[in-house]
Design goal:
By secondary structure, this protein is of the alpha+beta class. The chain is built from three helices and four strands; from the N terminus they run αααββββ.
Amino acid sequence: MEEAARVQFPLDLPEDAQTLAGGMVTAMQLALDDFRPLDLKPHEGATEEERCLYQRESYDVSAAPGPEGVTFVQITLKPQLCEKQGAIMDMGATYAVDVKGRRILAVQH
């Protein structure tokens, strides 16, 4: 409650605000929930680099409409964000999501 009282909302969002279609947001959320669930925690003794890889904020998410109601969602590690000891390969995935059915059809790692 105290935090909410300190938030001051702008009258309008800034000009550089991004509008995303609801279907795209749904597809991204489904993919992120599978890729990095909110309750996923690093293992005991994880290195700084490994802890970074567990954070959703370490990834960029892109989405594009596909055929027959499928939305493709690509999750990629932000370049050099978690790479303390050299390049990290294959830290991402591409999802085929059925938005209307609210389900993941396939995942490519």
